[in-house]
């Protein structure tokens, strides 16, 4: 498998780039059959200041319709609310807004995310998967009907061929550190992921931004071919498109800013005549899209945004409302019926489709997620080498520092046991940034109803904990070898150290669940870690802690762990027990076990709760 940046020059790709997308015939297996209508979608931000609360309007009430297989563009200057409108249409807006969205004449329901997909401005795909694997992952999770492996491969290959990326199927996607396919090719892979699950409508946020002019045209061509051939509706926010890109869109919504208001809402082909009638004729030469943006951008030379906004209210708004009324009065089709009809078209059993927000069963989610995580782990050889290397170095450094500590008086060994526990916390801190970056992928995929939060946590925890435990075990073995503490005590020491390690790991996962960025996650984790380290029954013990702070020693996992390790290794040493106030009774051991397991479960529950209630993708 190559890590090179791939440039493909095949007959299929040349045909893809040469064909006129507008002349693409509808495929007999086309499954697109949905229309979208929206009425009075609006969004405002409320802020508080010393003078009281103020409201800033981002987008005034806006209505419109999109027909089956339509290519629709949303354009406007910065701050006009075009991405806000897209997020409201797609159901991804996390802040409160007003207005209604209808699919096939009925209000949007819980199955809406199963027949739509959202393409973010940045391509968020794991770097170490191939193009085929990236698309197959979505296809398997969004296709509820039973399919064998050959049928799944054929379905994915069809999508790759449709978008002109079939020859890239075995190439790594890549990222800034892993060399893979180009930016334009990656954007088409993201679009393929949206189509693979049978989406009726694809919402794309600036799919051509940041691409070369050729890549931008190819991405737009891919969307146009899919819309014509499969009947899929594309609603895309477009920023400064070239003429070749503009020609591929059927309809246009133009918004101005300060505040966001509709300027035009209709067919792209009719925009020039509309602007001419409004007193802003389009020049005969040049890109009409550039002219539209110039004339509706407040502050630009020759702009007429306020006049055009008034013209829209007086001339076109009623026509748009009539289109919305006609769409809502048309034939009604429930989302579950759309899903079953799509299955039937693809030769699958419609009866196997169930009205659940997530298509795949929980066991299927676990299997597919686990397979991807194991694949990513296996291919990320640099990450594995770094993890093992750091574990070995930690063991060597601390082991040499405590060489032959086992032959010293028992009271001298406590610092060694403390460092064993401390190494686990340090190792986990190092992987928090990676954990948060992975969570961004998980949250975006969950937003498209690919799998549940519970399934992702189970798989992520399992794989990450195994790797973390492996690294911690290597460190502990090396440290213990240098210490010359009797190997007969290793199972006691490591058993309690492992319980503490997992408890602290779950605490750090709670922080990673809510921290907005990798750097902030480390800062947010420090107070809790300092609390655990300070009140560890060694620096501050039950024998020395002031009465008013002794409670801290009963909730710090390190305090319970240190006590059990020391009493397990030196249970008959009365001096150590008396000096630190340790209790070597069986009752204390059972209490320590219950406390650590309870805290482990508490932190895991908190992680699930916070992930379900919070989002990294605030819109």
UniProtKB/TrEMBL annotation:
Q: Among the entry's GO cellular component annotations, what is one?
A: membrane
Where it mainly occurs, coarsely classed, is membrane
PROSITE patterns, sorted:
ABC_TRANSPORTER_1, ABC_TRANSPORTER_2
Q: Does the keyword Membrane apply?
A: yes
Q: Which Pfam families does the record match to this protein?
A: ABC2_membrane, ABC2_membrane_7, ABC_tran
Answer yes or no on keyword Transmembrane: yes
Provide the GO MF annotations for this entry.
Answer: ABC-type transporter activity; ATP binding; ATP hydrolysis activity
Q: Which Gene3D superfamilies match?
A: P-loop containing nucleotide triphosphate hydrolases
Question: Which SUPFAM superfamilies does the annotation name?
Answer: P-loop containing nucleoside triphosphate hydrolases (SSF52540)
Its transmembrane ranges are 384-403, 415-437, 457-482, 494-515, 521-539, 551-570, 590-611
The annotated topology with respect to the bilayer is: Multi-pass membrane protein
Q: Which UniProt keywords apply?
A: ATP-binding, Membrane, Nucleotide-binding, Transmembrane, Transmembrane helix, Transport
Provide the protein's localization.
Membrane
Instruction: Specify the ABC transporter domain's residue ranges.
Output: 36-282
| Name of protein | ABC transporter, conserved site
Species for this entry = Ostreococcus tauri (Marine green alga)
């Amino acid at each position: 498998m190559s890590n090179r940046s791939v440039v493909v020059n095949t007959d299929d790709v040349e045909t893809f780039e040469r064909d006129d997308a507008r002349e693409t015939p509808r495929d007999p297996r086309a499954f697109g059959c949905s229309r979208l209508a929206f009425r009075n979608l609006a969004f405002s931000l409320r802020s508080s200041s010393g003078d009281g609360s103020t409201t800033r309007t981002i987008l005034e009430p806006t209505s419109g319709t999109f027909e089956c297989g339509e290519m629709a563009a949303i354009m406007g200057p910065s701050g006009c609310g075009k991405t806000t409108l897209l997020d409201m249409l797609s159901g991804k807006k996390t802040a409160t807004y007003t207005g209604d969205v209808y699919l096939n004449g009925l209000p949007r329901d819980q199955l809406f995310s199963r027949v739509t997909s959202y393409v973010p401005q940045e391509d968020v795909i794991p770097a170490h998967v191939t193009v085929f694997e990236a698309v197959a992952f979505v296809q398997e999770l969004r296709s509820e009907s039973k399919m064998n492996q050959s049928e799944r491969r054929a379905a994915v290959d069809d999508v790759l061929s449709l978008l002109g990326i079939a020859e890239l199927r075995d190439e790594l996607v890549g990222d800034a550190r892993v060399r893979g396919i180009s930016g334009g090719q990656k954007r088409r892979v993201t679009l393929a992921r949206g189509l693979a699950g049978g989406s009726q409508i694809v919402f794309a946020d600036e799919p051509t931004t940041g691409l070369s002019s050729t890549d931008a045209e190819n991405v737009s061509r891919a969307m146009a071919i899919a819309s014509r051939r499969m009947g899929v509706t594309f609603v895309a926010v477009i920023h400064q498109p070239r003429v070749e890109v503009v020609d591929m869109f059927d309809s246009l919504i133009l918004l101005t800013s300060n505040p966001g208001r509709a300027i035009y809402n209709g067919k792209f082909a009719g925009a020039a005549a509309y602007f001419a009638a409004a007193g802003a004729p389009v020049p005969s030469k040049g890109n009409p899209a550039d002219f539209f943006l110039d004339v509706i951008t407040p502050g630009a030379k020759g702009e007429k945004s306020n006049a055009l906004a008034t013209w829209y209210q007086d001339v076109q708004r009623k026509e748009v409302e009539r289109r919305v009324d006609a769409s809502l009065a048309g034939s009604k089709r429930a989302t579950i019926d759309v899903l079953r009809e799509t299955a039937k078209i693809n030769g699958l059993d419609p009866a196997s489709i169930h009205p659940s927000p997530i298509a795949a069963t929980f066991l299927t989610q676990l299997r597919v997620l686990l397979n991807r995580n194991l694949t990513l782990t296996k291919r990320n050889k640099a990450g594995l080498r770094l993890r093992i290397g750091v574990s070995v170095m930690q063991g060597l450094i601390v082991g040499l520092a405590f060489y032959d500590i086992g032959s010293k008086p028992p009271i001298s060994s406590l610092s060694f046991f403390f460092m064993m526990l401390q190494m686990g916390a340090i190792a986990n801190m190092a992987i928090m940034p990676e954990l948060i970056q992975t969570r961004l992928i998980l949250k975006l995929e969950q937003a498209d109803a690919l799998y549940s939060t519970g399934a992702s946590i189970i798989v992520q925890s399992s794989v990450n904990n195994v790797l973390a435990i492996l690294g911690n075990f290597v460190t502990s073995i090396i440290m213990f070898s240098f210490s010359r503490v009797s190997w007969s005590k290793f199972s006691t020491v490591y058993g309690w150290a492992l319980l503490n390690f997992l408890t602290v790991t779950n605490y750090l996962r709670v922080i990673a669940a809510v921290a907005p960025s990798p750097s902030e996650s480390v800062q947010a984790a420090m107070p809790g870690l300092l609390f655990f380290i300070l009140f560890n029954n060694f620096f501050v013990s039950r024998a020395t802690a002031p009465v008013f702070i002794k409670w801290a020693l009963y909730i710090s996992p390190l305090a319970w762990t240190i006590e059990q390790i020391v009493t397990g290794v030196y249970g008959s040493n009365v001096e150590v027990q008396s000096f630190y106030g340790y209790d070597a009774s069986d009752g204390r051991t059972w209490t320590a076990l219950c406390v650590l397991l309870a805290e482990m479960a508490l932190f895991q529950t908190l992680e699930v709760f916070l992930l379900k209630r919070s989002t990294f993708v605030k819109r």
